[in-house]
Amino acid sequence: MTSTNHGCNRLNRFKKTQPYSPLLLACLLSACGGSGTDSATGSSASVGATTSSSSADLLAAQNGSSNTVASLIEQELENSNSSFSPTASLAAANPDSGEPQTVFFSERTSGFTGEVLDDTIRVTWEAFPDAGGYNIFRQGQYLATVKGSTEYIDNSVFDDSYYYEIQAFNEAEDVFTNIAEGLTVKASTFNRTDPNAPVTNEGLLDDYELVFSDEFNGSQLDSTKWNTAFLWGPDVIINSEQQYYVDINNEPNFGYNPFSFDGDSLVITTIETPDNLVADANDQAYLSGMITSYDAFKFTYGYAETRAKLPYGRGYWPAFWLLNAYYGGGEAADPEIDIMEYIGHELDAVHHTYHYFETPSDLRSTSTFTSGIDFTSDFHTFSVEWEPNLLVFYVDGIERYRLVDVNVSSEEMYVLANTAIGGWWAGPPDETTPFPNTYEIDYIRVYQKVTPFNDLQLDQPDHKIPLFDQSLDTATPSHRPTLDSWPADQRP
Ligand SMILES: [Ca+2]
Predict the structure, then answer these.
(1) How is domain 6-186 classified at the CATH fold level?
(2) S-S: 363 plus which of 166, 223, 253, 468, CB 3.0-4.6 Å?
(3) Which fold has domain 204-490?
């Protein structure tokens, strides 16, 4: 599992880099198409919709909602007498009433709330010391600037999911700080849908049939479907990763089982390695889990999808991917399709990558990412449509990345899902990283065309995947160790 070239697209995620330079911010705001402001501090967009839509109705709605949120929080604090728990508060407020949820809380930032009103979404957050104002981001894009207030009324909304983040700024000291993240508001009561919403892949599978799946609704891992280690066994480490994948199929008495089930999902739980298991864990600092369909299922061309919820925290590196089944050679060797990779401290981005080795030392790799969604607070679907010379990556059924290339894999591949920790890309965990944490997988499904691609004569696409830029990272990505480092009994 590797991903490359991810560094070069990061500029438009400027909100993730702090402190911000006003010049950079101004430049990027225009690139993002943010609400027409041409000022880094957003004076022309100041207060955004809060002033431009200050109708009597809106003010009335604001006042009413403010009471609702306050009473919910009050109720929660009374109920718990302990730390604030957003999930618990919602359950207390709305116990299986069947009514659509209208109040949402961030699980990451205390006091960051969103409320669906009659025609708008009201977003509120806690004041940040010495802030001159706040920039509001929605779906990873700059939306508006607010001064003199800690709320924003978003009036350009439809029945949809909206992900908000807040950045405080102090113009005098030229300081920009991300202060609130992890708030997703799901609106369903406006009775209007976005006419410009992206088209989903609904209907794509009409010509497909399900050929392999696990719904993970049982109580234990199905060993007839899943291996629990890499092909080369659990003791060979790649990418300088820090986890040890417990091979529970072969070592049921290892002392820790990373796989559990909640009735709906497979839960892969990553922990710090207990002292008594360090030696057995090849001295790796963390215990985690991986499943692969290597023995049970391989396929060429099709559609693979998972629905999953990802672990937040620096160092986590969960993935859902396809790897070629047989150790290769030739001109486009060892292809890898990374349907989803996630780097744990960026809760609102997942990466999609295709790569292969043109020669043993020349890795060709192309990659992009989907941002503006909190992938850690709820389940999302990640999928790829794989055809001759074509890969289309989807998140939540919406196309995110399309690759047309003659070197798209035409080999048999198998499915993998795992939680890595550390390594050359994710970096090591730190004191903020929560342990344990979970990668929850609702299902994994693979479909293939009812009418297969029989000897299709395709035009050769005029495209060449770029060589991996070795200067981007000190380490060379490696989804496979060299053969001579494999345990002798694990070599294919
Ligand atoms: Ca399930």
Answers:
(1) Immunoglobulin-like (2.60.40)
(2) 468
(3) Jelly Rolls (2.60.120)
